[in-house]
């Protein structure tokens, strides 16, 4: 088969389409023939040499994909060859085939094409596990989403609205804020022109945000704590703004607030399987009835994955960027 390899760390040009050995599904795994994969920030970090795959994972980038089951490994039940699926991966999505633990498979939800299903696993698992399983967002509360027009952001808006929460977003252009509003966002903040702490205070009569989903890390840490409501919960899922920040413990104590930070890739298989099962139970029905949908900005051939990386690096997108395997373009 062919896959995107990274012979040396570097820019988008470091991604090389090359012939590699076919993966073989092990105990409890299935082999998926990939139709589409999606680009995530973690893939950019891996390409740059900053985010190695966990032990035992595929060396190729790609944390989610969609496709058809081509073979079943030993001990797999409940799935059949030919089933159309999407999957949460530890790596290997940028390839024609990938071996996936069966617990990380999801059926393609009703109303979504096999291609577009590649845009769902990472964002649904990230948002559900952080906003709902950890931060416990409840109906009537206010969620602030940084990067509201991103793949994660567009999913967080829809899921929060589906459970009856109020949603605030930050984004850097009018076009992106307008798209967030179309998805249901109530409070639109242009981070280039407005202070999100002040805007959240205005919009909530000084109460603040009950939950904040943050992709920036260090750069926003102090302001995020200031923007939290009493009993607020800050969920950090990224470090685009750096890795070291100063935390005002007194403010955190006064607000009786909590800060959590999580990632998906290196979690044990059992934890990832539990998150996938929760997404199938709680999110898939919302997708099937049209309340939630994947937001796809564009799709490029998998062999030209560097173009997808350039799009993410320039932030010239709204929603997800897909990579189409030869099986999808033949």
From TrEMBL:
| Superkingdom of source | Bacteria
Does this UniProt record's set of keywords contain ATP-binding? Answer: no
Keywords of the record, alphabetical order, are: NADP, Oxidoreductase
The Enoyl reductase (ER) domain covers 10-323
Query: What protein name applies here?
Result: NAD(P)H-quinone oxidoreductase
- Organism, by scientific name, is Streptomyces fragilis
């Amino acid at each position: 088969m062919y896959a995107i390899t990274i012979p040396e760390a570097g820019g988008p040009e470091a991604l090389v389409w090359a012939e590699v050995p076919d993966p073989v599904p092990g105990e409890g795994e299935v082999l998926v023939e990939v139709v589409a994969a999606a680009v995530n920030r973690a893939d950019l970090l891996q390409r740059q040499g900053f985010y190695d795959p966990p032990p035992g994972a595929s060396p190729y980038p790609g944390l989610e994909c969609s496709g058809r089951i081509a073979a079943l490994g030993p001990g797999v039940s409940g799935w059949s060859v030919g089933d159309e699926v999407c999957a949460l991966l530890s790596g290997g999505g940028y390839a024609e085939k990938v071996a996936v633990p069966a617990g990380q498979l999801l059926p393609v939800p009703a109303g979504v094409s096999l291609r577009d299903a590649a845009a769902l696993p990472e964002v649904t698992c990230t948002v559900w596990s952080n906003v709902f399983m950890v931060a416990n967002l409840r109906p009537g509360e206010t969620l602030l989403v940084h990067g509201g027009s991103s793949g994660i952001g567009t999913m967080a808006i829809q899921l929060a609205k589906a459970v009856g929460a109020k949603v605030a977003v930050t984004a850097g252009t009018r076009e992106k804020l307008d798209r967030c509003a179309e998805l249901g966002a109530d409070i639109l903040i242009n981070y280039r022109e407005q202070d999100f702490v002040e805007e959240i205070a205005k919009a909530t009569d000084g109460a603040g945000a009950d939950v904040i989903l943050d992709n920036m890390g260090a750069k926003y840490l102090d302001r995020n704590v200031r923007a939290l409501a009493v009993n607020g919960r800050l969920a950090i899922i990224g470090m685009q703004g750096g890795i070291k920040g100063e935390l005002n413990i007194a403010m955190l104590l006064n607000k009786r607030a909590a800060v959590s930070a999580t990632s998906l890739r290196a979690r044990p298989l059992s934890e990832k399987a539990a998150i996938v099962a929760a997404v199938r139970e709680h999110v898939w029905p919302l997708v099937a009835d049209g309340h939630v949908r994947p937001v796809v900005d564009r799709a490029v051939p998998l062999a030209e994955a560097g173009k997808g990386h350039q799009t993410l690096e320039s932030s010239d997108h709204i929603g997800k960027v897909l990579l189409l395997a030869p099986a999808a373009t033949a």
